[in-house]
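4.2 Preliminary Data

To establish feasibility before requesting continued support, the project team ran the inverse folding procedure on a target of 369 residues. The structure was first converted into the token representation described in Section 3, and no sequence information of any kind was made available to the design step. The complete token record follows.
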């Protein structure tokens, strides 16, 4: 795959370094990152990416979201994640996508295959089955979720009964990952054992959107907003909790916030199955928590977004200060040069006048007198 297969963003710093890690310009230097296993750059801390944008004085406003897909794995435990597509409005044809998902931090990354993503914990495996091996579909790995422990936790309201959900499960940090594609190519997850539960298409002119309340964000959702959202949701629920803050909560809360700032209300398809009844009890509990947390997070997002924009603007002024000082000094130097030029012209005219007078004095006629 040659350099022409990679994007050519309008900028080479700031957001471009994050969302276009390999470009036509740096392909030769970055091609060592490419391998057959994965074609994505992984980021595990959105707050660090936000700091990078702040330091670069870049709010990523030129990278606008074109489509968002809400994906669910068909195999149990039906891992859910988002795929966000975006484009550089200042560079025609420059586009990319990022996969946003939550897994367990201590669940080895080499056991999570992009084509067979799961959301399983080691202690949630059947004792008779081994851990999920790399590249093995969840439906054939020889294990099942131990829903009896989940049911025990859901059926009791006392604190002692909540302990039936393992303490290690409730205390583990979540691994919230942004996986940015190296190329413009996209693997259709619906052909890789997944199904599309919902979609937001911002390029469809028939989609009516109320943008009257989006004065602080503009017409489109930007990738800067996506980073602020993912950082906010992680900060609100940083731990992986099987009941309340697993991949379902993370993906659905982000989906809700994107809909809110875009003026949309696209619902996620809910289809009950006759098997794994307790799985849907967990999903119901999670959905309830999303609905409870959504108003607070929406208000907190507005605050975080304003702080981010203010920080970017402050940094922009800070970076522009040397340039502004240089421009002022240049203007002053030009004025001084103009004054010096006028003084020089006046001095030359004076010299010419004096030389004329001297020549007149030295003329033969003046000496005869």
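Position-by-position output of the design step:
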């Amino acid at each position: 795959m040659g350099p022409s297969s990679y994007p050519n963003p309008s900028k080479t710093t700031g957001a471009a370094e994050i969302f276009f890690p390999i470009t036509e310009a740096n392909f030769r230097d970055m091609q060592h990152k490419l391998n057959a296993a994965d074609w994505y750059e992984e980021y595990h801390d959105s707050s660090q990416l936000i700091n990078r944008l702040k330091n670069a004085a870049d709010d990523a406003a030129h990278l606008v979201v074109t489509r968002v897909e809400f994906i669910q794995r068909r195999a149990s435990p039906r891992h859910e994640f988002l795929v966000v597509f975006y484009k550089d409005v200042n560079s025609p044809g420059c586009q990319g996508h990022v996969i946003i998902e939550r897994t367990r931090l201590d669940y080895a990354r080499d056991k999570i295959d992009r084509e067979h993503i799961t959301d399983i914990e080691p202690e949630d495996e059947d004792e008779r089955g081994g851990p999920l091996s790399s590249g093995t579909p969840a439906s054939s790995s020889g294990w099942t979720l131990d829903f009896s422990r989940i049911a025990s936790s859901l059926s009791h309201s006392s604190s002692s009964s909540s302990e039936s959900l393992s303490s290690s499960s409730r205390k583990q940090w979540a691994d919230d990952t942004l996986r940015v594609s190296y190329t413009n190519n996209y693997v259709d997850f619906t052909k890789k054992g997944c199904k599309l539960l919902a979609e937001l298409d911002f390029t469809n002119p028939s989609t009516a959107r109320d943008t009257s309340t989006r004065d602080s964000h503009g017409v489109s959702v930007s990738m800067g907003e996506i980073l602020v959202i993912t950082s906010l949701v992680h900060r609100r629920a940083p731990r992986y909790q099987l009941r309340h803050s697993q991949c379902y909560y993370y993906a659905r809360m982000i989906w809700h916030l994107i809909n809110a700032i875009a003026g949309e209300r696209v619902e996620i398809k809910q289809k009950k199955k006759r098997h794994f009844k307790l799985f849907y009890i967990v999903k119901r509990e999670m959905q309830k928590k999303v609905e409870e947390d959504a108003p607070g997070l929406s208000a907190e997002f507005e605050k975080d977004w304003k702080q981010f924009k203010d920080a970017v603007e402050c940094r922009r002024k800070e970076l522009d200060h040397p340039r502004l000082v240089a421009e002022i000094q240049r203007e002053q130097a030009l004025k001084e040069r103009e004054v010096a030029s006028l003084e020089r012209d006046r001095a030359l005219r004076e010299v010419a006048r004096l030389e004329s007078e001297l020549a007149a004095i030295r003329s033969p006629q003046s000496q005869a007198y």
